[in-house]
Amino acid sequence: MTLAMDGAPGMPLNRAMLKSARRRERRIFSGLALPALVLVACILLIPFAWLAWLSLFDAAGNLSAQNYARLLRPAYVGSFLTTFKVAGLVTALCVVFGYPVAYLLSQLSARAAQILLVFVILPFWTSVLVRTYAWLVLLQRNGVINDWLLSMGVIDEPLALVHNLTGTIIGMVHVMLPFLILPLYASMKAIDPVLLRAAANCGASPSQAFRQVFLPLSMPGLASGIALTFVLCLGFYLTPALLGGGRVAMWSTQIADAVSKFSNWGAASALSVALLVVTAVVLWGVRRLTDALSFSAGKP
């Protein structure tokens, strides 16, 4: 009791010293982060502010909301819906193909998983342009796939696999699949296998243990992969432009046409700002969903 009373007068001083140390540590870390913050401001915030400024002026240079009003025209609304349709289909197919691959990698030994991960990362070593032209060779009417199907008697005439939505989806799934597999694999690898063994000891079958234990715990990683894939698809340009053949009108192609064909920077800027706002809303929604899934999975 005496020791506690003797030490009591020094407690406010200790608290003040701790607060001062925390403030000093924050200043140090803020100083270390300052170059990165300046870089982000230069390559992200300043160009965005420039685009937002350009979007407020019409072709004559007058302050106007004309560029945003034209977004309600049927052509822009149609391309907006096509953008979300393509992004949704590509993301859904990446989930269908990527989840089993990530699950297989998480269940293999470390050495086997590292070997197979090389094949997942291998497409990054090749330019997207080269991969897209490779799909053009494979999917065209006289391409490898149509020749193979014709020789086997599966089809009587070549299929239209390119310069349409089908070819665009195929090429984009090939490009985007690693972006879903990698964060999903990292999330699955962090799941403690003891939990599955505990479920088995409680009488759960392997399928029940997967549905009730493994699948819920992998949901935050799946949500992150879906968000990354979907957002990248929203602004993807090269593959839809080449494999779509101008018939798949996404907002990215609309932005490029507004600049290259019509030199209308105001319209292109308005499209870019609107797409960025939609992307931010999607990321915010996924963040809320991820937090909810993490909470339901028992993660802090």
UniProtKB/TrEMBL annotation:
CDD domains, alphabetized: TM_PBP2 (cd06261)
Transmembrane regions listed in the UniProt entry: 32-56, 76-103, 115-139, 159-182, 221-245, 265-286
Topology within the bilayer: Multi-pass membrane protein
Cross-referenced PROSITE patterns: ABC_TM1
Presence of keyword DNA-binding: no
Main location: membrane
Highest taxon, organism lineage: Bacteria
UniProt cross-references to InterPro entries, sorted A to Z: MetI-like (IPR000515), MetI-like_sf (IPR035906)
Record keywords: Cell membrane, Membrane, Transmembrane, Transmembrane helix, Transport
SUPFAM superfamilies: MetI-like
Protein name, per record: ABC transporter permease
Family assignment from sequence similarity: Belongs to the binding-protein-dependent transport system permease family. CysTW subfamily.
One Pfam family matching this protein: BPD_transp_1
Record's subcellular location: Cell membrane
Domain ABC transmembrane type-1: 80-286
